[in-house]
Design a protein that fits this description.
heterodimer, A: 473 residues, Amidase signature (AS) enzymes, 2 domains, 16 helices, B: 474 residues, alpha+beta, Arc Repressor Mutant, subunit A, 3 domains, 3-stranded antiparallel beta sheet, 14 strands, 19% strand
């Protein structure tokens, strides 16, 4: 049952929200011991919230477009009075005194919060193995990673423990796990969803987005959480997006370009390429004009990303110093206390990126690293602009391969980073893109196809995603 | 202060000013001094994970107002992060304008006409306040430290001068004039003792005639305009002594110690932080349009320099009292009295010297009447001062007050007879007065006027007495 179906049934009084919730909680009980999608399950709070929804329906009220829909929240989204850990020891014991804007908007729309989900520490990773609380496993094959960093929310949705997940996407952290877990994952245009209450990783790249089992569910959730928020200065001053109205309009007449440079990217698996080409054929069959698109700077995306993101992260994560909240390891003086707390509180990958970023911003190196990376970003945006003169949408695989075994890439960060080659360019450009499941690889595991659009082009992007969903094998 | 023979002191001033906005720079918390610690705080100014800054429009307006008052251009600007670890900085970075500040290229003219260039006046956030308990009272050796975040996120403008100042006196005049502009524009209460105006001085010395600047030391902890002057004099002397001994000046930050009257090393250049500035991604560029700048210009009040010029123009003279009167904000009163026909010099004299505080119940009409009594000879200067003080308190008419105090103008006949009695009582002095040169006569004038005043209990007019003495001497 999709989120839209659940909400329709609950609003109509055909199914109690409580019953829907219990079904999902039963799956949590049955599977989360193995999968470890959740850092925290809020069963009692969820039951109380579901009962409130049912009471409101009984009283003739409409609890909203997500009435009774069980939602899993990535544990880097602030929840008032509920631990928010970022899967890091450094935030031990911290409870935010406020809700993230998206959390408030979900609640207003009638959604029921099932729990907080696992992630790579501070969203730094592509496999959800970099968690202080242990890895999350892929529901399709628990020996494999679910992708990351939003692996917990994605696994929760893919396994049926929640109907909707929210993730954050800095370099592919929604789309990549969605592809590896066979669900829909969408990253909005930068500024379309408020970041207020999202614990920052790389502020100029971070966006919150939905993880769902259907394209229409993703559209509905995006409509609920999107729209201007005065608490986020980078929020685009536009009202809530309208996607559902045109979702079924098809792709007839649309020009769709397949990104040449990404199809030929290092490590691209033949089975993934094959599914992508089938997806192209499906769009063509539905009336789109397809062609080869060139975005030359796309291949430099990873390099630029691994300077910009760590640089911003090195600053964003400075506040975890043991002074005000979270872990404190006492020492002789303040500076030693800062160092001891950070040494004990952060995992290896976070430390690696803080050091990378600190170096990239250092006097004498700024121009060569951070400055150069920002220029690549500008170049990439220009390349995209050129491509969008010719095409309405672009297409690529979401990931080079299907889900890989747990432990396979943890020893080699560079190989791990290559996983995000197709997803990073959209973050650097601030453009929307989404991953739609499209068949399976030779190993029987899900493959995702990525649809990319120019800024604010979500409505068109969703039309193509809906066509792909209908045509998927 | 006098300069050091053969040497020139060069000073650049960096002044941090807390803006008097209702709320903080990036959140809705109250911007107030003296509240209970950690009561004016929220997720944003505490830098809690997930919180984001939203720029305070009034703070921007105040910054522009100050910039325009200093003759700056308002430019499209951006914010940056200045990264360093310190417990009173909740995010461990400070949001500040860096390479693109909102105000650039202004000038501040001192009362004597000397012009000090203003390089920039940019917006940034204040830090919290640490108190170090135990040990040496400094962060590295304290037993523990307490932090109050009420001040964290309070809007500041940092005004950076060009290295144009050459003496401690000029530096003091600069700080004084800047304070006057801050008060006139209402953008800050500019209280150095409460820290809402903080002055740092970049001091260097060079041999007279040298074109290149010497190595500078940045002197901090200047808590009053007096400290600023003392510290510059001390620091210039210290640097000259080093150079004359064949030593060199080290670029460093130095701490002024008011108690021992010296500066002490705080941080050397090697220990200086690498702030790793980069553009603040949580804020968008700030580009006030021409309309906004025009509105700010239109609403600018008259600044101290213009007010001094106006008052001096109205009075027809530029005495030192003019600056004092403008500083105290009494220039409107003085101008109105002069406009109403009161004698300008007497007005400047009374308002400049005898009205230090609040004007109380005094208005221009009352002042005009008082000055008329004084210039008309009905009141002596001493009596006028006493009446003025009473007017401030009660607001009553000067004639009434004078009558109550028993101040009655002596008629000429009565005064003549007192003068004659005094002359008769001091024949030797009188002979000296009559026969003496101008110098001797000048000295003895004071002697005889004093005697007459004593005899009349201050009711005589000094000028009239002097005239009578001259007349009697022939």
């Amino acid at each position: 049952m999709s989120a839209r179906e659940i909400a329709a049934a609950v609003r109509a009084g055909e199914r109690p929200a409580r019953e829907v919730l219990e079904e999902h909680l039963a799956v949590v009980d049955a599977r989360d011991g193995e999968l470890h999608a959740f850092n925290l399950v809020l069963a009692d709070e969820a039951r109380a919230a579901a009962d409130v929804i049912d009471d409101r329906v009984a009283a003739g009220e409409d609890p909203g477009p997500l009435a009774g829909v069980p939602v899993a929240l990535k544990d880097n989204l602030c929840t008032r009075g509920v631990a928010t850990t970022c899967s890091s020891k450094i935030l031990e014991g911290w409870q935010p005194p406020y809700d993230a804007t998206v959390v408030a908007r979900l609640a207003e729309a009638g959604a029921v919060l099932v729990g907080k989900t696992n992630l790579d520490e501070f969203a730094m990773g592509s496999s959800t193995e970099n968690s202080a609380f242990g890895p999350t496993r892929n529901p399709h094959d628990p020996t494999k990673v679910p992708g990351g960093s939003s692996g917990g929310s994605t696994a929760a949705v893919a396994a049926g423990m929640a109907s909707v997940g929210l993730g954050s996407d800095t370099g592919g952290s929604i789309r990549q796990p969605a592809a590896l877990c066979g669900v829909v994952g969408m990253k909005p245009t930068y500024g379309r969803v408020s970041r207020y209450g999202l614990v920052a990783f790389a502020s100029s790249l971070d966006q919150i987005g939905p993880i769902t089992t259907t394209v229409a569910d993703a559209a509905t959730v995006f409509e609920v959480i999107g729209g201007h928020d005065p608490l986020d200065s980078t929020s685009i001053p536009r009202p809530s997006p309208e996607i559902m109205a045109t979702l079924g309009d098809g792709v007839a007449g649309l020009r769709i370009g397949v990104i040449d440079e990404l199809m030929g990217a290092e490590g691209m698996a033949p089975d993934v390429l094959a599914r992508t080409l089938e997806a192209v054929a499906a769009l063509e069959a539905a009336g789109a004009t397809v062609g080869e698109a060139s975005v030359p700077a796309a291949v430099y995306g990873i390099t630029a990303y691994y300077l910009v993101a760590p640089a911003e992260a090195s600053s964003n994560l400075a506040r975890y110093d043991g002074v005000r909240y979270g872990l404190r390891v006492d020492a002789a003086n303040t500076a030693d206390m800062n160092e001891a707390s950070r040494t004990a509180g952060f995992g290896d990958e976070v430390k690696r990126r803080i050091m990378l970023g600190t170096y990239a911003l250092s006097a004498g190196y700024y121009d060569a690293y951070y400055g150069k990376a920002q220029k690549v970003r500008t170049l990439l945006i220009r390349d995209f602009e050129k491509a969008y003169e010719e095409f309405d949408l672009l297409l690529s695989p979401t990931t080079p391969t299907t889900a890989f075994p747990i432990g396979e890439k943890t020893a080699d960060p560079l190989t791990m980073y290559l996983n995000d080659v197709c997803t990073i360019p959209s973050n650097l450009a601030g453009h929307p893109s989404m991953s739609v499941p499209f068949g399976t690889g030779d190993d029987g595991l899900p493959v995702g196809v990525q649809v990319l659009a120019p800024s604010l082009g979500e409505d068109t992007m969703f039309r193509a995603a809906a066509v792909l969903e209908g045509a998927a094998p | 202060m006098s300069g050091i023979e053969g040497w020139e002191t060069v000073v650049g001033l960096e002044v941090h000013v807390e803006l008097a906005t209702e709320t903080k720079l990036f959140c809705g918390c109250r911007n107030a001094f003296g509240s209970e610690p950690n009561t004016n705080v929220c997720p944003v100014c505490l830098g809690l994970p997930g919180s984001l800054p939203v720029l305070n429009r009034t703070a921007v307006e105040y910054a522009m107002r100050l910039g325009r008052a200093l003759g700056c251009r308002v430019e499209a600007s951006t914010f940056a992060r200045k990264n360093y670890f310190y417990p009173d900085m909740p995010k461990d970075y400070q949001v500040s304008q860096y390479d693109l500040p909102i105000n650039i290229d202004g000038v501040l003219e001192l009362p004597d006409g000397f012009r000090v260039g203003i390089e920039r006046a940019h917006i940034e956030e204040d830090t919290g306040k640490s108190t170090h308990i135990g040990g040496g009272g400094r962060i590295h050796d304290a037993a523990h430290s307490l932090v109050d975040y009420n001040r964290a996120g309070v809007p500041l403008v940092e005004i950076v001068s060009r290295p144009d100042v050459r003496t401690a006196d000029q530096a003091r005049a600069y700080a004084h004039e800047l304070r006057g502009i801050l008060l006139a524009t209402g953008v800050s209460d500019a209280r150095m003792e409460e820290g809402s105006m903080r002055v740092d001085a970049n001091v260097s010395v060079r041999r007279v005639g040298d074109e290149t600047l010497g190595t500078r030391a940045e002197v901090k902890n200047l808590n009053s305009i007096r400290s600023l002057g003392r510290a510059i004099d001390y620091e210039a002397r210290r640097q000259v002594d080093l150079l004359e001994a064949g030593d060199r000046v080290v670029q460093e930050t130095r701490h002024w110690n008011e108690a021992d009257g010296r500066t002490h090393t705080l941080r050397s250049k090697e220990e200086a932080y690498d702030y790793r500035y980069f553009p603040e991604p949580d804020l968008v560029p700030l580009a006030p349009d021409a309309d906004w700048v025009n509105r700010v210009d239109a609403a600018l009040p008259l600044l101290p320099a213009a007010r001094r010029a106006t008052l001096a123009g109205a009075a027809g003279v530029a005495t030192a009292d003019v600056a004092t009167i403008v500083d105290r904000g009494h220039d409107d009163l003085a101008r109105e009295a002069i406009a109403a026909g009161a004698d300008a010099r007497t007005v400047l004299n009374r308002v400049g010297n005898d009205l230090a505080g609040d004007l109380g119940a005094l208005d221009a009409a009352g002042l005009t009447a008082l000055v008329a009594l004084e210039t008309g000879g009905d009141l002596t200067a001493t009596q006028a001062k006493a009446v003025l003080a009473e007017m401030v308190t009660s607001g009553r008419a000067p004639t009434e007050i004078a009558a109550d105090l028993g101040f009655e103008a002596m008629d000429t006949g009565a005064l003549e007879s007192v003068v004659d009695q005094v002359i008769a009582g001091h024949p030797e002095d009188w002979t000296q007065f009559v026969e003496g040169d101008d110098k001797a006569r000048g000295k003895l004038t004071g002697f005889f006027v004093g005697l007459v005043m004593k005899a009349t209990r201050g009711q005589a007019d000094g000028k009239a007495v002097t005239a009578l003495l001259r007349q009697r001497a022939g």
